[in-house]
């Protein structure tokens, strides 16, 4: 591990013996393709915040006990 004070928040660099000059990725995302399907009418979609029924989920305020 090498400290690089001139890099600010990225001051700690992990050294990989195979790739000594490459910074490792901080994270990776998984973004599946949205499948087109049935959609709500414009008025319904506007009131629900989405035109896709598959994304229309209830808001459960306080449902998580750890918050």
Summarize the entry for a quick read:
With 67 residues, the chain is mostly loops. Helix content is 10%, strand content 6%. The chain has one helix at residues 42-48; strands spanning 2-3, 12-13.
**End-to-end distance:** 35 Å
Topology order in helix (H) and strand (E) letters:
EEH
| Total count of strands | 2
In DSSP terms, counting alpha (H) and pi (I) runs of 4 or more, how many helices? Answer: 1
Strand numbers in spatial order across the main sheet: 1-2
Helix/strand structural class? little secondary structure
Question: How does the major sheet shape up?
Answer: 2 strands, antiparallel
Shape by Cα distribution:
elongated
Proportion of residues in helical segments: 10-25%
Overall mean pLDDT? 75
Beta-strand residue fraction: 5-15%
Give unreliable regions as ranges: none
Radius of gyration: 22 Å
Write out key terms for the chains shown.
1 helix; Spore_coat_CotJA; little secondary structure; Spore coat associated protein CotJA; 2 strands
Please describe what this structure looks like:
- The chain has 67 residues and is low in regular secondary structure.
- It contains one helix and two strands, in the order E-E-H.
- It has one helix at residues 42-48; strands spanning 2-3, 12-13.
- It has a two-stranded antiparallel ribbon.
- It comes from Anaerotruncus massiliensis.
- This is Spore coat associated protein CotJA.
């Amino acid at each position: 591990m090498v400290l690089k004070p001139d890099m600010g928040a990225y001051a700690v660099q992990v050294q990989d013996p195979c790739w000594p000059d490459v910074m490792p990725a901080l994270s990776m995302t998984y973004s599946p393709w949205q499948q087109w399907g049935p959609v709500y009418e414009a008025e319904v979609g506007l009131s629900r915040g989405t035109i896709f029924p598959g994304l229309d989920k209830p808001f459960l305020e306080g449902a998580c006990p750890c918050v």
